[in-house]
Amino acid sequence: MILSKRKSSVNAKRNIIANTYPDSIISEQFRMIQTNIKFSVADQKNRIFLITSPGTGEGKSTSAANLAVSMAQQKKKVLLIDANLRNPVLHTIFNIPNSDGLTDVLKGRITFEEAVCHTEIGRLDVLASGINLVNPVELLGSQLMRDLLKVALQRYDIVLIDSYSVIDVTDTKLLANQSDGVILVIQSGKTLLEKAAEAKKEIEFAKSKVVGVILNEN
After folding, report:
1. Please, are residues 162 and 84 in contact by the beta-carbon 8 Å criterion?
2. Helix axes 193-205, 170-177, angle to 10 degrees
3. Is 113 exposed, middle or buried (0-12, 13-18, 19+ CB in 10 A)?
4. Which of 9, 58, 69, 137 is the Cys-Cys partner for 18 at CB 3.0 to 4.6 Å?
């Protein structure tokens, strides 16, 4: 398990630092996180990674966005999926529509190709969450979701999945089971050690593994 730190910044939720300031210390830290994950996962077949946290408000979506940008800048074709169907924010970070997205594909309303948004950042595409669901567990744990990920792997080098906190809901554990590894985001001064340990246990119970930890520092 690799532990990496990054400093949080003002308006981080609306600012993709890795793209806006590629030469900054924060951007370099995300490149380091990317490299650490690469070395910690020896099998090149491991290409689906879930980003989650023990609780809410710990910066996982911002971390997911910046990590995706960093990977795309290293000439990887990256798909970032917003599977946080309870509180999606990636569409606001990237300023893309959320009228169509993941849920619409899983419901058969539109195709995968129609739902994916191409960003201004070369090689990085985003699949927004789509319409809100009362109970997303059934869809995220379905064979349809597994099939979607198989299609994504045919088109992309890396698939990153942004999700809800792993302790609070079942759907994140289902996604962890479908991923090759989990990146856990914790916030310094907010995340209790007990919660972090509980999150790790939940991930292992889902038959997945923590391949990296991002420590957000205020």
Report:
1. yes
2. 50
3. exposed
4. 69
Residues in contact with 204: Cβ distance below 8 Å, sequence separation at least 6, in sequence order: 210
When divided into structural domains, the chain yields a total of 1
Distance CA 201, CA 218 (A): 26
Is the Cβ–Cβ distance between 97 and 117 less than 8 Å? yes
Provide the CB-side half-sphere exposure for 54 (13 A, CA): 19
Q: Is the pLDDT of residue 99 over 60?
A: yes
* Whole-number pLDDT of residue 3: 46
Phi and psi angles of residue 84, each rounded to the nearest 5 degrees, phi first: -85, 75
Q: Is the pTM of this model over 0.90?
A: no
Region for 6 from its dihedrals, namely left if φ exceeds 0, alpha if ψ lies in -120 to 50, beta otherwise = beta
Is 90 exceeded by the pLDDT of residue 178?
yes
Q: Which residue is listed with tokens 């798909």?
A: 79
Give the C-alpha distances (Å, rounded to integers) separating 136 from 8, 11, 26, 128. Answer: 30, 29, 34, 14
Whether 172 shows a pLDDT value over 90: the answer reads yes
CATH number, domain at 120?
3.40.50.300
Domain that holds residue 76: 2-217
Kindly state the tokens that stand for 118: 């191409």
User: What Å distances lie between residue 108 and 99, 100, 102, 176, CA to CA?
Assistant: 14, 11, 10, 23
Place of tokens 């590629």: 22
